[in-house]
Q: What sequence folds into this?
């Protein structure tokens, strides 16, 4: 979980001091390197920029079996003969630099293999619709970046099993960090269907200056109650920028609150829905209470994925939950927003608060998957292997909003919260965060429940339609059971 | 020979005529050959997608599973789905209100622009602006206009004292549908206005002059000359625009995305949501559910047009 900037500074000072002392005692840099592999270092030890030309043969992950080489050569010949490009869908994220890095690396890989490649940037918010259409039309790309929920729903019918590649990368790069390891568990329904490359999750961004002006607490809120209380005190300057509509931002925050109040979608078997519970009533009561107090922005009910980001960047809200794209924009600027170092300075970052029952730091995974319809599976895996090389992913991570998937990536300097608070938070999320599905079973039904914004719909029926909590919960329970039954046929 | 045949008895004429137009007639084969590209395009881009959509609606197709034929089960479950029924009701309200609004505003503006105004050409161009704007720009501007935090509508209404506090026009259950309807009318009425204007200009002036001589007032001239004169155009515009509005997606998606809650969910939005949650079979059924309504509507309009002719 992400920690307060101050506390991190203290921890880091201690850590640096201990590591430095050890280094001096050991009389060499080997101890420093060893520590760096496990914890965040004071200094970055890898090359900053990737080699312009890929050196696949020199990669530690590169040694492939002869059979694989032969198969790949055949695929290269077939691809060239077809005259068509190898297509990869890159998950479009907020950082233009990260997007360019990803597409540039894919093109460089294609050049090294002597083939035509076509990296296509697909907005992550539209990925589900695009993939659905592509599956129906038989036009899936050869490989793609994919969310863990979408991967579960696509399943083994639409995605190739790349467990061997996954194992190979884990072996070469020191194993998976905790959040990524969730996708490698034996009981995970999507095991082997993708290679985790990025861990994302929300951090609370809060305006320290506005909170101070309003006489509210500037320290990181420990509970959702505490946060919403501060939000009502700052309503004149924006309050809470949490969405209430059918949008992923709303669903993810509601999910964290719902779990915080002890809620879960289904039982341990992942079959029987448990929405109709006291925990759900408590959760709904919490949201209603603060909605009635006016803690939510009036425009919160009809929002899109960028609404809260723009609200915060425009200085119109005090709290938002964001995976880091807002901070990246403040620091680097974007096509729509200029750099805003003052806003960055006035922003505090912290982990999501907790409810009365528990506190969770849900982490989501982004994975690289190979389409079952591809004619070039070896090439697809070769590309993934190339993209996962530390020198390549280093450049991507530096500008993207993901925590590290593999332990071998933990050495990059920007994971240090003193260097970059958001990257520090994402590092914590990747190494110590809970799975976004916790405590539920991460299966296709769980994924579908979230994709259909069922939690947000339940809240809206209670808040906006005026339905009683009992009626709302009964409807949500029925909808949930229908989804779980359909998926457990 | 042809001349002889044509001057022969009607029976012979019909027979010869049929032979000349038969499918094995070299001219016919050439004709079919010439039509082939268009037919291929139609089959590829119209018949196949429609056929696939109908097939999908009769299966339990989801993203990760094989599609099994389930007959009309999807349609049955739609009728039992309260969200679908709400979407159907919203669609009816939306389409009716939008079409009525476009008709009244379009006709009113067309009559106004038909008068001898100063800078008439300029005003005619100005009227076209909403229609000429890309849809997504128009609706995003409306979304901003309605915004309770920074929208100019709230600022204006507050300044002139009509409201005390900003209204979330798109976020309030009671306001959302009227707000979206108004934006849709604004975007679509110019098409109606320009078409009506063109039709009004085609009505012979002599009719108005004769009516004036007979002592008919403005309303009588409009009712008895203008309206019958433009009726064929009204029917065509009504037909095209209604089909477009029934299938309209961007107006609502870009402003409210169907919210708040389900206040502005119409059938295309409902179908799209189904698609994004991978219920391909059911969303295909939802998308097709309005086709019979559109077909019946089209049938009656075409019948009316034929009668007028």
A:
């Amino acid at each position: 979980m992400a920690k307060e900037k101050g506390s991190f500074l203290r921890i880091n000072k201690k850590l640096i001091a201990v590591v430095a002392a050890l280094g001096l005692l050991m009389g060499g840099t080997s101890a420093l390197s060893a520590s760096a592999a496990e914890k965040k270092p004071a200094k970055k030890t890898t090359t900053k920029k990737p080699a312009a030309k890929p050196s696949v043969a020199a990669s530690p992950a590169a040694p492939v079996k002869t059979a694989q080489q032969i198969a790949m050569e055949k695929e290269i010949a077939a691809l060239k003969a077809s005259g068509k490009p190898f297509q990869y869908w890159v998950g479009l994220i907020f950082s233009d630099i990260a997007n360019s890095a990803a597409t540039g690396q894919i093109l460089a890989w294609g050049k090294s293999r002597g083939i035509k490649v076509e990296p296509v940037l697909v907005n992550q918010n539209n990925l589900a619709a695009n993939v659905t259409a592509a599956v129906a039309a038989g036009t899936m790309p050869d490989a793609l970046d994919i969310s863990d929920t979408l991967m579960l729903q696509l399943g083994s019918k639409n995605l190739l099993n790349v467990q061997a590649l996954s194992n190979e990368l884990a072996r070469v790069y020191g194993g998976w960090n905790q959040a990524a390891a969730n996708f490698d568990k034996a009981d995970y329904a999507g095991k082997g269907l993708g290679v985790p490359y990025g861990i994302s999750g929300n951090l609370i961004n809060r305006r320290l200056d506005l909170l101070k002006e309003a006489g509210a607490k500037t320290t990181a809120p420990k509970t959702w109650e505490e946060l919403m209380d501060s939000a009502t005190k700052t309503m004149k300057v924006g309050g809470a920028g949490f969405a209430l509509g059918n949008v992923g931002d709303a669903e993810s925050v509601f999910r964290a609150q719902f779990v915080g109040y002890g809620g879960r979608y289904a039982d341990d078997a992942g079959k029987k829905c448990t929405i109709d519970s006291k925990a759900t009533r408590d959760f709904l009561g919490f949201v209603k209470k603060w909605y009635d107090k006016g803690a939510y922005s009036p425009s919160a009910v009809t929002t899109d994925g960028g609404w809260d980001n723009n609200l915060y960047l425009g200085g119109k809200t005090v709290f938002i939950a964001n995976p880091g794209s807002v901070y990246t924009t403040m620091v680097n600027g974007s096509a729509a927003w200029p750099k805003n170092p003052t806003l960055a300075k006035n922003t505090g970052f912290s982990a999501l608060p907790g409810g009365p029952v528990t506190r969770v730091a849900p982490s989501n995974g982004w994975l690289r998957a190979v389409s079952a319809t591809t004619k070039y599976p070896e090439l697809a895996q070769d590309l993934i292997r190339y993209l996962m090389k530390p020198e390549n992913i280093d450049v991507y991570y530096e500008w993207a909003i993901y925590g590290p998937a593999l332990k071998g990536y933990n050495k990059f300097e920007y994971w240090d919260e003193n260097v970059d608070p958001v990257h520090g938070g994402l590092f914590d999320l990747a190494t110590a965060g809970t799975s976004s599905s916790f405590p539920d079973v991460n299966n296709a039904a769980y994924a579908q429940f979230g994709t259909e914004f069922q939690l947000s719909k339940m809240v809206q029926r209670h808040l906006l339609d005026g339905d009683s909590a009992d009626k709302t919960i009964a409807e949500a329970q029925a909808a949930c059971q229908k989804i779980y039954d359909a998926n457990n046929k | 020979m042809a001349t002889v045949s044509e001057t022969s008895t009607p029976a012979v004429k019909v027979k010869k005529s049929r032979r000349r137009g038969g499918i094995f007639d070299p001219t016919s084969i050439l004709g079919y050959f010439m039509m082939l590209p268009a037919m291929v395009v139609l089959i590829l881009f119209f018949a196949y997608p429609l056929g696939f959509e109908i097939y999908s609606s009769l299966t339990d197709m989801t993203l990760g599973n094989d599609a099994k034929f389930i007959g009309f089960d999807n349609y049955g479950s739609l009728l039992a789905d309260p969200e679908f029924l709400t979407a159907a009701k919203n669609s009816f309200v939306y389409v009716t209100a939008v079409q009525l609004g476009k008709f009244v505003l379009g006709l009113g503006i067309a009559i106004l622009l038909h008068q001898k105004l100063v800078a008439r050409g300029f005003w005619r161009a100005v009227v076209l602006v909403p229609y000429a704007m890309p849809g997504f720009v128009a609706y995003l501007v409306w979304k901003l206009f309605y915004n309770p935090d920074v929208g100019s509508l709230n600022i204006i209404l507050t300044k002139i004292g009509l409201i005390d506090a900003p209204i979330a026009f798109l976020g309030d259950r009671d306001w959302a549908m009227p707000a979206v309807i108004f934006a849709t009318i604004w975007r679509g009425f110019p098409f109606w206005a320009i078409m009506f204007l063109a039709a009004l200009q085609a009505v012979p002036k002599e009719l108005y002059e004769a009516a004036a001589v007979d002592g008919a007032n403005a309303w009588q001239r409009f009712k008895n000359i203008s309206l019958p004169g433009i009726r064929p155009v009204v029917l065509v515009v009504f037909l095209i625009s209604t089909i477009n509005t029934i299938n309209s997606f961007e107006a609502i998606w870009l402003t409210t995305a169907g919210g708040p809650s389900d206040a502005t969910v119409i059938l295309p939005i409902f179908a799209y949501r189904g698609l994004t949650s991978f219920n391909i079979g059911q969303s295909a059924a939802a998308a097709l559910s309005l086709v019979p309504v559109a077909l019946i509507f089209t049938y009656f309009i075409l019948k009316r047009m034929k009668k007028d002719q």
Q: What stands out?
A: Chain B touches chain A at residues 52, 56, 61-66, 143, 147-150, 166, 168, 170-171, 173, 176, 255-263, 272-273, 275-278, 280 (CB under 8 Å). Chain B has two domains: 17-57, 74-308. The longest helix of chain B spans residues 82-114. The domain at 74-308 of chain B is CATH 1.10.3720.10 (MetI-like fold).
